Amino acid sequence: MIVAGNWKLNTTLIEGLNLASRIEDSISKLGPMEVRVIAAAPYTHLDRMVNSTDRIDVFAQDVSRHESGAFTGEVSAGMLKSIGVKGSIVGHSERRAYHGENDELIHEKIQMCLQHDLEVIYCCGEQLEDRKNGHTMKVIERQISKALSKLNVDQFDSLVIAYEPVWAIGTGETATPRQAQEVHEFIRNWLKQNKGEEVSEKTQILYGGSVKPGNADELFQKPDIDGGLIGGASLKAEDFIQIVRAAG
Asked: I need a surface site. Which of 125, 140, 142, 187 has the fewest CB within 10 A?
């Protein structure tokens, strides 16, 4: 199981280091468990967090599709790798909505990460209108086909998929465990049909969309849900640890 916190545009450096420290202390008290804990922190925190955490894998929240050059404000996969970052989120719905990122660009970012030996948490998900119109699976299939079809089987060793229904992000709304499981099962079947049974079985699929202590246990009991991509609840150490405990 994986529990990944996406801190988004939150915390100063000192606040972030304190949050990471509290999470690590709490993890150490939980005892042995097969849960991987990830924190996707702001760029300004990454170097210090890499060097001050032992039980948390540090990820970026985004990465450039470019190797280098005149791209003001961009941070490359090579730069992230050079400071010890483990991987990056790619394709988050907020990047799609606010920065116009499309499936082709997201595929390029995935490839850039993999070329530099960075892991990827690839995000996909439908809008509320898509769900109301019965187009959820059509949207998901389009997204994952364009982003993942060209990857070879070995590259899936470094890829995690996160299903995040856009209508449930930061809204307090959550897909029911049944709704989430239906989409996760669809994604796993797509992997089986297009990349083979081994990839389908080993690829971890996270749920992201207002996961909190009160619903984590029921979500994580579903057979095709392998953990969560956590937003708001990852900023409160106590809430985040309760979710980690549910995954364990």
From this structure: 142
